[in-house]
Specification:
With 120 residues, this protein is mostly helical. Helix content is 68%, strand content 0%. The chain contains three helices and no strands.
Length: 120
């Protein structure tokens, strides 16, 4: 009997240790997953930052800034003349009108119902 009580106490202690250890192990695994997600997010932000740095470097070139100003904002240098080509003033041709589609022929049941209801 004495041997069994020690065995029972050892099993209960082992179960208590396992239960108490389960929470930190789960937290450790969750933190590992969070670290991996954050690594991926940092990598995405780094690539976006590199792209923005490349665009900023591109905009440091005066020729590129001038080209963008001419293209996007139709700006011209002093002394130059800007011309715009407007669309023609011809109104669009109206769509031809189509005759209304013929009504589909009613089936025998619909015709019979119509005649019956018209009598009432």
């Amino acid at each position: 009997m004495k041997h069994r009580s020690w065995l029972l106490a050892a099993v209960v202690a082992l179960l208590a240790v396992l239960v108490l250890a389960a929470f930190p192990v789960r937290a450790y695994r969750d933190q590992g997953r969070q670290r991996e997600e954050l690594r991926q997010r940092v990598a995405a932000l780094d690539s976006a930052s590199a792209e923005l740095e490349r665009k900023a470097e591109d905009l440091r070139d005066p020729a590129r800034v001038e080209a963008l100003a001419r293209e996007r904002y139709q700006l011209v240098r002093p002394g130059e003349e800007a011309y715009s080509i407007l669309p023609s003033a011809v109104p669009p041709a109206p769509e031809p009108t189509r005759p209304p589609a013929p009504e589909p022929k009613a089936g025998w049941l619909a015709r019979a119902w119509s005649k019956l209801t018209s009598l009432l």
